[in-house]
Write a structure and sequence with these properties.
The complex is a heterodimer of chains A (354) and B (344).
Chain A: H1 3-6, E1 12-21, H2 25-33, H3 38-45, E2 48-58, E3 63-67, H4 74-81, E4 89-94, E5 97-98, H5 104-114, E6 115-118, H6 130-134, H7 136-141, H8 145-158, H9 174-187, E7 192-196, H10 204-221, E8 224-229, H11 232-238, E9 241-246, E10 249-254, H12 256-261, H13 266-272, H14 277-280, H15 283-286, E11 298-300, H16 306-313, E12 320-325, E13 328-334, H17 335-341, H18 344-353
Parallel strand pairs in A: 3-8, 3-9, 6-7, 7-8, 11-12
Antiparallel strand pairs in A: 1-2, 1-4, 4-5, 9-10, 12-13
Chain B: H1 5-10, H2 14-17, H3 28-35, H4 52-58, H5 65-107, H6 110-125, H7 128-143, H8 147-177, H9 179-194, H10 197-207, H11 213-237, H12 241-249, H13 254-287, H14 296-305, H15 309-341
Helix pairs in contact in B: 5-8, 5-11, 6-7, 6-15, 7-15, 8-9, 8-11, 8-13, 9-11, 10-11, 11-13, 13-15, 14-15
The chains are: A alpha/beta (354), B mainly alpha (344).
Chain lengths: 354, 344
């Protein structure tokens, strides 16, 4: 892989992307540029504005999470990346190359080698067993059976499914089926992984397991992952870069902790108000600069959650911790700041005052 | 003189109507009327329906219904020779196949053929019960001396069903891929399915000689091919779209998709269509005995023609037994596929 080019330029870059559903979507672009609203476009021209003016950069080796409620266009957006859906206007650059300019063969090649996808409903082939399912992309590429099954086997082991190779998908639980789905994506050895609500159909405990598995895999594989979800907790847990979509438009994007502390508008404020902030917010987000002469109760890691800190202080509000990154102290936090950060509105105004 | 005279007079067509007037009575009805001393104008109805026959009474240039059906016949006869020139060589292999199958089923000795058929039933169904039942049926048919006719029926069904599958599945696949073709084919399939089975035979008798096997072969195939086409089309359209999207996302080509995903997933539906096709060829092979198809149907026909009640009923029982054999065997095969493919 050419690490030199990818250090700065984003791996995937979406520019001014529009998607209009209807009989003559191209003709509607002029109305869009004239600034027509989504409701007017529907009532006057009978076209649905699916996505409007999406601009997102997705960095190599990061997990970009696109979050939105149902109907916000997030599944439509992810299908644009491998052109399962074609955009009405705008460009999608992967490694600097516009996927709209690809020929049919080049597009097939892109889907076979550069991008893999994991689906909400697993979408495994019911008539093939687990190892054949996992080896799908290699089979499509025409790799020898023994070789592709060895590779599939390796990834099945990695996702904790060894011993189930000869089972059929319907013999597995939902969680296990999705592990096969992930193994199928990993076996293709693509550097981009698209995950469309991959964990939404699983029950909460299994979902947490799968999120941990994904983070663990990501730690060693450093893939560019685009993850779609409607669950903010999930988004905050795994996102390096969070994009919040509402009604086909990006409402806010950025580092998840920053979005949590500075919601851009009432919609997002509503969204984040239901979150267990103590579990999501990290110490470095709410820390204050070091003040000389303060007495510290102890040292903490900047990536600890506030919950860990509360547990450590055993509820003692007089405690004051020093934050140490490796060896260097980088800030401090007292329990008063911590408690304030737990209340959405106060913490937001606090941050604005800073 | 006739009721609709005023109509042609008003249109100023009287002269055209009377160009070829002849006094000779043309139809039996007119002859009878004349014999009874009635005039043609003495029409019982006060206000007759303006049908061809009634209009003809007012204007002899109008064709009568009889002439209209004769015209249909003439036009068919006019294209018949050209049609025959094209269809004859195309369908000749069908005759060979049918004759060959009939020949081999009647020359292979029973002690080889019956074990072969029973083994075939086992291979397809993998069910002990079904296999034993098939063996019992053949032994019973042999015992009542109906084995050779039953085997004739069976051989025709084998050939026709095989051809139906061979032609029907590709047509069904093409239909599932093109909405336009589907729209065009559905009325045709409806027509083939609703046309009374006797009607198939009429134009075929004109086209081919009754001594040729392909005459009934074509009738059976046209009648029985419909379900396999319909269910192949339906089966492929019903394949889970999520799975199709997934294999698209991994860059599968259309050919790989058809062979590796769509066809296997549609197989249970296709097999249901094959089962229907087998049953329909059995029902048609009985009717086709009217046009010299050999087998159990001939005995049924004899029962009707000569009022031989016993012959007809025993042959009918033989047909029912064959039907049950074919149905159970193909259903067992279908169930086997269902289990191995998607027991969800």
């Amino acid at each position: 892989m050419n690490m030199n080019d990818t250090t700065n330029a984003p791996k995937i870059r979406i520019r001014k992307l529009y998607k209009i559903f209807g009989t003559k979507p191209q003709d509607m672009m002029s109305h869009i540029h004239a600034g027509i609203s989504k409701a007017d476009l529907l009532s006057n021209h009978h076209h649905v504005l699916g996505l409007q003016d999406i601009n997102v950069d997705m960095q190599a080796g990061e997990i970009t999470v696109v979050m939105g409620l149902s109907g916000s266009g997030k599944s439509t957006l992810i299908r644009h990346l491998n052109r399962l859906i074609d955009p009405t206007d705008g460009e999608i650059l992967v490694d600097g190359e516009d996927v709209m300019s690809l020929s049919k063969d080049e597009l097939s090649k892109l889907r076979q080698t550069n991008m893999s996808m994991v689906f909400q409903k697993f979408a495994l082939l019911p008539h093939r067993n687990v190892v054949q399912n996992a080896a799908l992309s290699l089979q499509i590429r025409g790799v020898e059976e023994a070789e592709r099954e060895k590779e599939a086997q390796r990834w099945l082991e990695r996702v904790g499914l060894s011993g189930f190779e000869k089972h059929y998908p319907h013999q597995l639980s939902g969680g296990m089926q999705q592990r096969v789905g992930i193994a199928r994506a990993l076996t293709s050895n693509s550097d981009i992984m698209l995950m469309d609500e991959a964990f939404s159909a699983l029950d909460p405990l299994i979902r947490t397991d799968m999120q941990d598995l994904l983070l663990e895999l990501q730690k060693e594989l450093h893939k560019t992952i685009v993850f779609i979800t409607h669950d903010l907790d999930e988004a905050l847990k795994i996102a390096d870069h969070l994009v919040i979509l509402n009604d086909g438009a990006v409402v806010q994007q950025g580092e998840p902790q920053q979005i949590l502390m500075n919601p851009a508008d009432p919609y997002i404020e509503d969204f984040v108000s239901d979150i267990n902030r103590a579990r999501v917010l990290r110490v470095h987000t709410v820390m204050k600069p070091l003040k000389k002469g303060t007495k510290y109760t102890g040292d903490v890691n900047p990536n600890d959650t506030l919950e860990t800190l509360i547990a450590r202080s055993e509820g003692n509000t007089a405690d004051n911790f020093r934050i140490v990154d490796g060896q260097t102290p980088i800030g401090q936090i007292d329990m008063k700041d911590l408690v304030k950060a737990l209340v959405p509105r106060i913490s937001a105004s606090d941050q604005r005052a800073l | 003189m006739a009721f609709y005279d005023w109509f042609f007079n008003a249109l100023g067509l009287r002269e055209w109507c009377d160009t070829n007037v002849s006094d000779a009575p043309m139809s039996m009805a007119q002859l009878l009327a004349q014999a009874r001393g009635e005039t043609a104008s003495a029409n019982g109805d006060g206000f007759p329906f303006p049908s061809l026959d009634n209009l003809n009474k007012a204007c002899t240039e109008m064709p009568r219904t009889r002439e209209m059906t004769a015209a249909v016949e003439d036009s068919f006869l006019a294209v018949k020779d050209t049609l025959k020139l094209v269809l004859d060589p195309l369908t000749q292999p069908l005759s060979w196949l049918l004759d060959g199958a009939l020949y081999s089923f009647s020359t292979i000795p029973w002690f080889i053929l019956i074990p072969l058929l029973v083994a075939g039933a086992w291979y397809v169904s993998r069910s002990v019960g079904v296999t034993i039942f098939v063996a019992m049926v053949f032994l019973f048919l042999g015992f009542v001396d109906h084995l050779d006719v039953a085997l004739q029926t069976l051989s025709i069904i084998f050939v026709c069903t095989a051809l139906c599958i061979l032609l029907g599945i590709p047509i069904g696949i093409a239909m599932s891929k093109s909405n336009l073709l589907q729209k065009a084919m559905i009325p045709l399939l409806d027509l083939l399915q609703t046309l009374p089975s006797f009607v198939y035979l009429i134009p075929l008798i004109f086209l081919f000689s009754v001594t040729e096997a392909k005459l009934y072969g074509i009738a059976i195939i046209l009648y029985a091919i419909v379900p396999v086409i319909r269910l192949t089309d339906l089966g492929i359209r019903l394949v889970d779209q999520d799975v199709i999207e997934a294999v698209n996302a991994f860059g599968m080509s259309n050919k790989q998709k058809l062979i590796g995903v769509e066809f296997p997933l549609a197989l249970p539906n296709i097999m249901a269509g094959v089962n229907q096709t087998i049953m329909m060829s059995l029902s048609m092979v009985v009717i086709a005995s009217l046009v010299s198809a050999p087998g159990l149907g001939v005995l049924v026909l004899r029962g009707i023609r000569n009022l031989e009640l016993g012959v007809g009923l025993v042959a009918g029982l033989g047909i029912v037994l064959l039907a049950v054999v074919l149905d159970r065997t193909s259903k067992a095969a279908l169930a086997r596929i269902n289990v191995s493919h998607q027991s969800k």
